[in-house]
Amino acid sequence: MIIFAKILSAVFALIVLSRSIVDYRDKKESLQMTIFWIVVWLAITAIAFFPFLVSEAINLFGGNRTGLGTVFGMGLVFVMFIAYRIYVKANRIEKHVAKLAREVALGELKAINKPKTTKNKR
Amino acid sequence: MKMPHKTHLVIVIPVYNEGKVIRKVIDSLPKKLEGVGRISVLVVNDGSLDNTAYEVQKTQAILINLPFNLGYGGASIAGFEASRALGADLVVTCDGDGQHDSKDIKKLVAPILQNKADIVIGTRLKKSGHMPTIKKIGNWGLNFITFAVSRVWTTDSQSGFKAFSREAVSKIDIEGMGYEFCSEIIVEARRHKLKITEVPIKTIYTKYSKKKGQSLLNGINIVTKLLLSKLTRTK
Known about the structure:
Strand order of the largest sheet of chain B: 3-2-1-4-6-5-7
Number of strands of chain B: 7
Order of helices and strands of chain B: EHEHEHEHEHEHHEHH
Distance between the termini of chain A: 88 Å
Radius of gyration of chain B: 16 Å
Mean pLDDT of chain A: 76
Helix content of chain B: 40-55%
Helix content of chain A: over 70%
Number of strands of chain A: 0
Distance between the termini of chain B: 25 Å
Strand content of chain B: 15-25%
Order of helices and strands of chain A: HHHH
Mean pLDDT of chain B: 87
CATH architecture of chain B: Alpha-Beta Complex
Oligomer: heterodimer
Number of helices of chain B: 9
Shape of chain B: globular
CATH class of chain B: Alpha Beta
Largest sheet of chain A: none
Radius of gyration of chain A: 25 Å
Low-confidence stretches of chain B: none
Largest sheet of chain B: 7 strands, mixed
Number of domains of chain A: 2
CATH superfamily of chain B: Spore Coat Polysaccharide Biosynthesis Protein SpsA, Chain A
Number of helices of chain A: 4
Shape of chain A: elongated
C-alpha cells in the first residue's frame, strides 16, 4: 500500500510539474505560480516517500496521533469534492471560451470573403 | 465520394510564434498540383506574441487570428471550420516551423484524389533516420497509447502533416485543445469508419524545428489529456 502511494504521488507530481514547466515556458503561467506548484508537489512527494516527516511535524507543533486518521479521511473527501467541482467547471469554461475564440476568428474570415457590393447610381 | 472536377485544396497552418520562418514556409508551398483546381493557404494565428501575423500579411495566404492561444488542437479545429467556410474539398494540415517538405503534399493528397482514403497521415517514422532517439521513443509510446484508445495502429500518430477529405473534415468532431488533437483524429476516424492510410514523408530537422518540436514533458500531458478526453467524452 505504501509503495502504491509512493508511485501514485510520484506520477501525479510528474504530471503537475511537467504541466507547470511547459506552461511557464509558453508564458502561460507566472514564475511565482510555477514555483508554488513545484514546492507543493515536491513536498507531497517527500511526504509520500518519507511518511515519518508527518509525525515529526505533528510532534513539532505539540499534537498527538489521536483521531489523525479521521481528520485525514475527511480532508481527503473534501479535497476530492473540490477537485471534482473545479474540474467540471474548468472543462465547461474552456470549451465555451475556445468556441467563442474560434467564432471571433471565423468572423474575421467571413469579413474577408464578403463580396463587395456597389450601390446603383441613379 | 467522387472528387469534384475543380478540387479546392486548403492548406491549413496552425502557428504560434513562428514569425522567423512562417514566410519561408508559405512561400515553399506548391502553387499548382495535379488533380487540384485551386489551392488556398490558410494560416491560423494561435494568439502569437511575436510578429507572425505581420509576416503572414506580406504573403497571399489567408490569415485568421485567434484572440488568444488555444493550443495546437484548438487552432487546428479553427482551421477545419474555416476550411469548411471556404468550401474546401481537400484539407492538408502542415506545421508552421518548416519541418515538413512541401513537395510531400502531392503524395499526401493522392490517396484522397484516388478515393482510396479519407485521412492520410504523413509518417516521419518510416524514414526516421534523422529523428532524435528521444523523439523516436516518445512517438512510439504515443503510438501505443493512441492504439489503446482507438484500436487503430499508425506509425506516426503525432504527425502534423496530414490530408483530409471533405467528408473527414465534416465528420471529425474534436474537443482536445492541445497536441492530443493528433491522437483524437484517429479515434474519430475509427468512430466514423473513415479510411486511414499513411505515406512516408521527409522531415527537415533544423535547430529551429528541433527547438519548436514537442518535448517529453508534453508527451506526458498528451497522454493525460487523451485519457481524460476518453473518459469524459459525451458523444
